[in-house]
Amino acid sequence: MKVFLMHRDHNFELERKLPPNEQALAQDLELGVLLNAMAGDDKFLLEVTRKAILSSLVDLDQILYRQSTLKDCLKNPHVVRDIYRVAVETTTGEKGIWGWYNPYNSTDQILGRSVKVLTLCVGRLKELRGIVDQHAGEFESEGFRALFAMLKEELSDEYLAGVQGLLGGLESADGTLIRAELGEGNMGTNYALCKQQDKKQGRIGRVFGKNEPHQFTYSLDAHDDTGIEMLSKLRDRGINDVANTLAQSSDHVLGFFTSLRAELAFYVACLNLHEQLVRKGEPTCFPLPLARGGRAQSFEGLYDASLAMKLEKRVMGNDVNAENKDIVIITGANRGGKSTFLRSIGLAQLMMQCGAFVPAKSFSSDVCLGVFTHFKREEDTTMKSGKLDEELKRMSEIVDHLSSDCIVLFNESFAATNEREGSEISRQIVSALLEKRVKVFFVTHQYEFAHSIYEKKMPNALFLRAERKAGGERTFRVVQGEPLQTSYGEDLYDRIFLRTAPSPASAAPVTS
Amino acid sequence: MTFNSILFERPEDGTRGPGAEPDFFVDLNLNQIVDVIIAGREEYGLRPIFLAPLKSVDAIKYRHEIMQELEGASLHDAVQSFAQSMHAMRQYRGRSDRILNTYVKQGWFLNAVEAYCEAVSRLAHDLAALGPRSRGLSSFLEYLKKYAESGEFTTLASETKKVRAALTGAKYGLLIRGNQFSVRKYEGEPEYSAEVERTFEKFKQGAVKDYRIKFSDYLDVNHIEEAALDFVAKLFPEVFQGLEDYCAKHAGYLERTIATFDRDIQFYVATLELVAQLKASGLHFCYPIVSDKSKEVYSHEGFDMALAIKLMRENSSVVWNDFLLKGNERIFVVNGPNQGGKTTFARAFAQLHYLASLGCPVAGRDAQLFLFDRIFTHFEREENINDLRSKLEDDLVRIHSILDQSTPNSIIVVNELFSSSALPDAVFLGKKVLERIIGLDLLCVYVTFLDELSSLEKTVSLLSTVKPENPEVCTFKIVRRPADGLAYAQAIANKYELSYERIKERIPS
């Protein structure tokens, strides 16, 4: 029984390997803030969501499959949360049943516990059936319709009654009949618990201590402690297989609930985020994913969802059309929203490719094979290698995992040396990436570098600048514009050192 | 050609060998290499093989042929599955010998013979299918074929199967109630497991945990099981009579040449396993050209194998070095900063020669090496470090004894001789010793801190090097000439392989 809400044809793998740069990605894009908004303090929810966001889908059809499932969730939030509650209660309820991880478990205990767990599960399966019977008609997506149809079919009343019968029978066996064979060294092997056929006859005909020709009986002396222990071990061996099968079965059934929980968790997290953005009045939209390889990114009102979660007031969105662009170079004033813009690009791409909605009025982009970030790190605590050394080391690790149609977001990279050398390093790296069809977003103050790209008049390059009004006031938006040599650091200096009066702009979000 | 042994084509090839570890074993860290190779194979007693260098080029080739064939996965697997079965046989045999209960003793004996039959038939079959071409393995195959087809072996195999089939057929039921149990013939009662499994089939997902409790293989049979087994024997008397007759008839089943092969072939397998591990970490190995005449020797990308093993375990990799002695060049004089890889270079040189003399593959892409008569090493001894006079004396006594025993076919490795004596003394004595070595025309690596010793005849001066951009960092490269410097930024970009050209190569298309 497969839930299949995250993928049409396979389970969402909680153990899946995340991209090698997950840590850098989480740090640079400030994923923590977003994840916190989505999962609160629910660790499981957090884990699933983190994995879902970081393991991007590439197949358009898979992305649309999740989008349609998510749309159903936005329509029926209460039913979805109710099913999720049943899954959570079952998986946590199981842990309350004593005795699982005790290393001194006898097979008897394993058997007893498994029967208890399975009995709990049968009750929960019935509850689930009830919810499905009541609400199945309200769902439209392929994922939910398939799930509900399956639950109806597999969990018939007849089946559930059969399970209860079997569990009852196992607990009330009279004497233990074990089949065995002679194995290595003529020791007994292949033990198996069997159903006794001739219960009544056996009881009347048996006289203990006297050997019938077809049956030999051994009675242990009451003081034969070793013997009693050995016999009980022999019995343990006999029921080992059944206990194992039962324990595995209870794992399987619990596995179904765990899977149900895992497959729903991402959607529940999306519900959480959606409710918060709606409350703030921020727009969201379902993005239009486009085929890999094309360069067709364009959006309106794209904002950084992590920043939106941090601020009370609404945040500024950007409109950019980057169709047919392989490289976007962003220059301009310090604290003008460049990093925020870069983060919003990365986050939106990840959110689109995990099947979620996107924080924008409209958004479309070609899917990529991986998002990489190379951000300037303020805090370089290790004295072991110099700063440039550290930056290049990180870059080299990124190159190890790059292929065409990946995106690399650079934020003031390679500035830890003089501008001439830094520009040369940037130029070589970026030129090679572009030739390899890697998409590049580069926030930089290196005029020599930015200008040299601009001079080439490449049709596939887009130049953006942090907007600044005539009076030096920042809008925290990026607009099209060629790189300028003067930095706006002077403004900043003025504001901090020679502050005259708080300008209206200083009430706006302060970001770096 | 009749089969002698997989180690020696002719009986006379196997007569040399000191028995005990020679002095240089520790200095060259050969003991560490051998320890790693034979680890986990103590039951075979392989160490003496590593203490007996071969004395002819042909005897080395005999082993090279076998080694090279065993590098093939299928041949290696065939030999290893043979080894596993033989190992199992010994274990079973051991149990059978230890245990007192007759039925259990006979049971383990049957297991031992089963493992042996399996080992022999399977190896005969596998080897025939693979058709080995080396002298050693092909003549062993001839021998094995004859044995596997002999009446002695085929009778053993068929009777073993018959007895096993009869025992497996003796299925019985154990009915346990309280402190009593009964044993009877099994009447076909249905199993519970299957029903449980069927019921929950629909929930099955992927891999499962195994909840079966692992019961120890209780080798000491308890009286409950003995009682049960006695009952089973009473229920099936003719089956157990057959087992008893079988054991009496086949007590001496094990063939001697097969048993010896089982041990000897592990020399190859063990060596190749370590070589394969090191190769997987990016290093190269080769079968060297070995000569007992030419003293022109070379190696490309050779390394200290003991160090490579250590670094592999720490997930780092060893630095390789090339060497070449041509014409009348005989001696490497190695100079350079401390901790720069000088001693390692010297060890590698001698290790290559020693391992080559065993017929083993050696470190490096390719190599030509000399078949020496003896190896001598003079390394610093720590115990006398505080007593300069006695240390100098000890140094001289030792080097004198080495020079006395050496012939033009010997190899000498000298590591920092006279290092704790006064400088003029060290220069004077060093030159004297080196002149004696030059006079003997033997191959030598001479590690020294004295520049003065690097310009004599027949010698090649080598230097351990440092990074041009960072002179505190040793490269562990030993070269004839030092390298040039580079501009910092470009050098550091190159270091991380981030030049335009390298990035393009690194990203797949």
Summary keywords:
heterodimer, A: 512 residues, alpha/beta, MutS, DNA mismatch repair protein, Chain A, domain 3, Rossmann fold, 3 domains, 6-stranded mixed sheet, 4-stranded mixed sheet, disordered C terminus, B: 509 residues, 18 helices, 14 strands, 50% helix
CATH architecture of the domain at 284-501 in chain B: 3-Layer(aba) Sandwich
Distance between the termini of chain A: 49 Å
CATH superfamily of the largest domain in chain A: P-loop containing nucleotide triphosphate hydrolases
CA-to-CA gap between the ends of chain B? 56 Å
Helical content class of chain B: 40-55%
Q: Quickly count the helices of chain A.
A: 16
N to C succession of SSEs of chain A: HHHHHHHHEEHEHEEHEEHEEHEHEHEEH
CATH class of the domain at 284-501 in chain B: Alpha Beta
Question: Runs of chain B with pLDDT <50, length 5+?
Answer: 383-389, 481-487
- Strand neighbour order, sheet with most strands of chain B: 10-11-12-7-13-14
pLDDT < 50 stretches of chain A: 199-213, 379-385, 487-493, 500-512
Oligomeric state:
heterodimer
The CATH topology of the largest domain in chain A is given as Rossmann fold
Radius of gyration of chain B: 31 Å
Report on the architecture of this protein.
The complex is a heterodimer of chains A (512) and B (509). Chain A folds into three domains: 22-171 and 251-279, MutS, DNA mismatch repair protein, Chain A, domain 3 (Orthogonal Bundle); 177-240, no CATH class; 283-507, P-loop containing nucleotide triphosphate hydrolases (Rossmann fold), CATH 3.40.50. Helices cover 50% and strands 15% of the residues of chain A. Chain A is built from 16 helices and 13 strands. A six-stranded mixed beta sheet of chain A has the order 9-10-11-7-12-13, with helices on both faces. The longest helix of chain A is centred in the middle third of the chain and has 56 residues, at 225-280. Chain B is an alpha/beta fold. Among the domains of chain B are: 11-16 and 54-167 and 252-266, no CATH class; 284-501, P-loop containing nucleotide triphosphate hydrolases (Rossmann fold). In chain B, 50% of the residues lie in helices and 14% in strands. In chain B, strands 10-11-12-7-13-14 form a six-stranded mixed beta sheet, sandwiched between helices. Chain B has a four-stranded mixed beta sheet with strand order 4-9-5-6, with helices on one face. A two-stranded antiparallel sheet of chain B has the order 1-2. In chain B, helix 6 (102-130) crosses helix 11 (237-249). Chain B is elongated, with a radius of gyration of 31 Å. The model of chain B is unreliable at 383-389 and 481-487 (pLDDT under 50). At the A-B interface, helix 6, helix 8, strand 1, strand 2 and strand 3 of A face helix 5, helix 6, strand 1, strand 2 and helix 9 of B.
